[in-house]
Amino acid sequence: xxxxxxxxxxxxxxxxxxxxxxxxxxxxxxxxxxxxxxxxxxxxxxxxxxxxxxxxxxxxxxxxxxxxxxxxxxxxxxxxxxxxxxxxxxxxxxxxxxxxxxxxxxxxxxxxxxxxxxxxxxxxxxxxxxxxxxxxxxxxxxxxxxxxxxxxxxxxxxxxxx
Length: 162
Description:
The protein is an all-alpha fold and 162 residues long. The protein folds into two domains: 82 residues, NADH-ubiquinone/plastoquinone oxidoreductase chain 6, subunit NuoJ (Four Helix Bundle (Hemerythrin (Met), subunit A)), CATH 1.20.120; 41 residues. It has seven helices and no strands.
């Protein structure tokens, strides 16, 4: 077994344990910390794929910012509201659907044959020049969509306060 395969299996297990822990945890603070564990495992998988930029974004944006926002939301949410929304009647359906997706993905992995490819790292300067020359317009459109979503969230939260 090669070192990269061993690291892949370890990081995959870390990501999987964190993700299952998020879903299974009854405590939202533990769920947020397990989400951080899962996201860090995914960042490690990106490093194995020689996608340093994606690993950096995964750590900074998702691992840092999103987890902090989730923890702030937990702190600012009223305790009574979170107690009322503890159980969901759709939980059995979600279990069936998730098991079906798992079986399909596992069958695809078992039936498929892995391709041997040569991995090549892309430098940040190459990525930046590609992103801001050939992909500048889609990049700006994505930022406008995020801005509209942020404004919409502010408007919705203001309406509920009044």
